[in-house]
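Batch job 17 of 40 flagged for manual review because the log was empty.
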Amino acid sequence: MSVENLSDREVAPDTAYTRYTFEKSKSYVSFQPAWESYAINTSIEGNFLTIGFGTYNIEELTDTSLIIAQEGFRRIKLLSEDYLNSREDNLQQLGELNGKPFYLANKVVTPRYKKETPLSQVLSKNTEGYDFTKVSYFLMTFVVTEEGKIEHVKVENGLAEGFDAETVKNLLKTSKDWKPAYYKGKPVATQIHYDIKYLPSSVPHSLH
């Protein structure tokens, strides 16, 4: 996605990752490649697309791109996932798994968690009893296979034995709740990471 400023005032460049998944009456907006952030109401009337409270003029709609604009605000260009994940420069092989290559997940070639409940909420179940008063960082990696199964979970940076074990246990329960990554129309196994930063002055949040 690329954003062009159409207002008279200077706006800082938007470098955040954002993905839109459109359905008939709602769309999912995500700031992480592998799972959704939130859903908003969406509708189309004539040549106008309404996303939440904003209405945009549809300037271009093809099999691979969508360009929408709001006068005096911004123009947004969206490229389809099928188009982006057919490019070889978006694929990085890490090795072999079960006799087949597996790849590093990125913003384009990535698996997707299919459930509506936020992944961070699912993975934090039964971990509320741990108190991290200092800056802490949890990181684990795992592979989503071509069948959408979770394999090869590894805690790269743990916080506490019980916390780490419960988080891994919760992740393994999501096996088969994932859509595998696709490359050129075929499913591929990818390694992805999940991390949490605990800051003393803020509520814990998940990042990707």
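Reviewer: the log was empty due to a logging misconfiguration, but the result itself is present. The first strand starts at residue 2 and ends at 5. Unflagging and moving on to job 18.
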